[in-house]
Amino acid sequence: MSQFFKIHEENPQRRLILRLVEIITQGGVIVYPTDSTYALGCQIGNKIAKRRIQRIRELDPNHKFTLICPNLSSVATYAKVDNIAYRILRRLTPGPYTFILPATSEVPRLLVDPKRKTIGLRVPSNSIAQALLSELEDPLMSVTLSFPDKENHLTDPSDIRLELANSVDAVVDGGYCGTFYTTVIDLVGKVPRLVRVGKGDVTLFEV
Q1: Is residue 143 a contact partner of residue 61, using CB atoms and an 8 Å limit?
Q2: Backbone angles phi, psi at 201, to 5 degrees
Q3: What would the pLDDT profile of 77-114 be if each residue is shown by its tens digit?
Q4: Helix runs in 101-206, H state only
Q5: Which of 20, 133, 171, 188 is paired with 115 by a 20 to 30 Å CA distance?
């Protein structure tokens, strides 16, 4: 049975955040809020936790996970950021955007696109996610919480708890998140490319 954490949306209780960090570092899988939707997250590079998330979401083995980072400095640790990419990242982070960038050697191989050698990263503005990342001191390996047999994302933490009570180690009640995916921007080439229109303002990513 998963643990249920009611965490203040603006002023997250540190003792609860530290308990979540403990669960994650012990190999646990959590559900947590972002500035777009709720998401499933686990410790970076943890293969067992990654497989658990794949089973929960019924994901194809090739489905790409995202690294959820606390800030731009963390992004630069895991991705190669040129001047054009940096200007865009600086303008749009934190926010509901996912960026595709060339991966550095710091990224575990199980997260790197084998053909393009890229990684998806984002820096959420959600206060709970930011508090968690700050205490964890590492990015979260993450995917959006959605299911192929449901038309909409789960947005009520109580519903999420009922749905995933025996599948995850912790569910964070951080209030309503919404149902829109992030906007995805590919920053690998010389010209930024809009891959998916989501919650983020697409007019802001232009150089």
Answers
A1: no
A2: -70, 115
A3: 999 999 999 999 999 999 999 999 999 999 999 899 98
A4: 127-136, 157-164
A5: 133
Q: Other C-beta atoms within 10 Å of 17: how many? A: 21
CA distances from 204 to 36, 66, 73, 140, 201 (A): 17, 21, 21, 26, 6
How many residues can be counted in the chain? 207
Contact 155, 38 (CB under 8 A): yes
Q: Which residues fall within 8 angstroms of residue 44, CB to CB, at 6 or more apart?
A: 67, 108, 111, 138, 139, 140, 141
Residue 109, both tokens: 């191989």
* CATH number, domain with residue 187: 3.90.870.10
Structural domain including 148 reads: 3-204
Q: What is the pLDDT of residues 123-166, one digit of tens each?
A: 999 999 999 999 998 999 999 998 766 555 677 888 888 889 88
Residues 6+ apart with CB under 8 A from 150: none
CA distances from 81 to 92, 107, 123, 154, 180 (A): 14, 14, 15, 34, 27
How many folded domains does the chain comprise? 1
Sort residue 64 into left (φ over 0), alpha (ψ -120 to 50) or beta: beta
